[in-house]
């Protein structure tokens, strides 16, 4: 399973300074664990958290989950030291916040020059400048480690001075543009966090919205969000059955070389066959993760 095609339905943030939370995370069925050195860690604990994150990754025990570490921004007092340390951590990816331009990606690429080729660079899209530079940032995936974006809607709301409501109305254009830019350059993309972790109905509605927009998955702030998130971003039984029916129909001898056929009473084209094959493949990879 390569990084480019693996399921990334759920990505759970954990403070790197909380050893107990990290130990529990080894048994949580999130597809991604993100050890956080940024927002979740007080300034006086940054260096200790960095060492703890590296130690946790090297101790292992996360199974076949991806493990990423979110560094502090390069414009902070800790950013450069974070990337230097994380380059040799053994993490699957380094997540960098406040990415606004292609030059920021270049700077991160240089800072991770000593890292193994397999280490990925993930970027937070959470500034007003980034929204105006989405295509140029995404294009850096062609020549760098960049492979995944995470939306930071909370920070974007702060910078825009916009209200973050359950409907996320002010941010819908930015979410749509980010998905389009990511897809055009082969980058995976995850939706931002839902701040409501006690009301799972509110969370589920926001996750369904992210699925509707085409996100691969969603970032999470509480373990209780993992189960609903995995369910929402997994193919349903009905979707899987229809996909298998499409594949079977196109495989019939009488449909050889046809560009469009009728399946379950609906016109179905080759693009639907491609979508069906991808959905079945994703379902198989999810089963492998389990």
Looking at this protein, list some descriptive labels.
single chain; 290 residues; alpha/beta; TIM Barrel; 2 domains; eight-stranded parallel barrel; two-stranded antiparallel sheet; 10 strands; 43% helix; globular
Short synopsis of the structure:
The protein has about 290 residues and is an alpha/beta fold. It has 12 helices and 10 strands.
How would you describe what is shown here?
The chain has 2 domains: 10-232, Phosphoenolpyruvate-binding domains (TIM Barrel, Alpha-Beta Barrel), CATH 3.20.20.60; 237-289, no CATH class. Helices cover 43% and strands 17% of the residues. The chain has helices spanning 19-25, 46-59, 79-86, 102-111, 128-132, 134-139, 153-160, 172-184, 200-213, 226-232, 237-250, 270-289; strands at 10-15, 32-36, 66-70, 93-96, 120-125, 146-151, 188-191, 217-220, 260-263, 266-269. The strands form 2 sheets. An 8-stranded parallel beta barrel has the order 1-2-3-4-5-6-7-8, surrounded by 6 helices. It has a two-stranded antiparallel ribbon with strand order 9-10. The protein is globular, with a radius of gyration of 20 Å.
Largest sheet entry: 8 strands, parallel, barrel
**How far apart lie the N and C ends?**
13 Å
Number of distinct helices: 12
Give the total of beta strands.
10
**Strand arrangement, major sheet:** 1-2-3-4-5-6-7-8
Which architecture of the largest domain does the CATH hierarchy give at level 2? Alpha-Beta Barrel
**What does the average pLDDT come to?**
95
CATH topology of the largest domain: TIM Barrel
CATH H-tier superfamily of the largest domain: Phosphoenolpyruvate-binding domains
């Amino acid at each position: 399973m390569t990084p480019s095609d693996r399921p990334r339905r759920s990505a759970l943030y954990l403070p790197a300074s909380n050893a107990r939370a990290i130990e529990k995370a080894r048994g949580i069925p999130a597809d991604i664990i993100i050890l956080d050195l940024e927002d979740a860690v007080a300034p006086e604990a940054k260096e200790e958290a960095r060492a703890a994150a590296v130690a946790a990754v090297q101790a292992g025990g996360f199974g076949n989950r991806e493990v990423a570490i979110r560094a502090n921004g390069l414009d902070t007092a800790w950013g450069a030291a974070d990337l230097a340390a994380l380059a040799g951590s053994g993490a699957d990816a380094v997540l960098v916040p406040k990415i606004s331009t292609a030059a920021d990606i270049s700077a991160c690429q240089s800072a991770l020059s000593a890292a193994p080729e397999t280490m990925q660079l993930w970027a937070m899209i959470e500034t007003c400048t980034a929204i105006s530079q989405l295509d140029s940032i995404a294009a850096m995936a062609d020549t760098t480690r960049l492979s995944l974006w995470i939306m930071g809607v909370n920070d974007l709301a702060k910078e825009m001075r916009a209200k973050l409501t359950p409907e996320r109305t002010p941010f819908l254009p930015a979410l749509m543009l980010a998905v389009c830019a990511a897809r055009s350059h082969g980058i995976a993309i995850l939706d931002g966090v839902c701040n409501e972790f006690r009301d799972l109905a509110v969370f589920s509605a926001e996750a369904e919205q992210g699925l509707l927009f085409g996100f691969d998955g969603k970032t999470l702030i509480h373990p209780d969000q993992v189960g609903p998130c995995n369910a929402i971003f997994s193919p349903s039984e009905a979707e899987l059955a229809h996909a298998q029916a499409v594949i079977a129909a196109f495989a019939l001898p009488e449909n050889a070389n046809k560009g469009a056929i009728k399946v379950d009473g609906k016109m179905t084209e080759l693009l639907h066959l491609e979508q069906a094959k991808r959905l079945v493949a994703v379902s198989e990879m999810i089963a492998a993760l389990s």
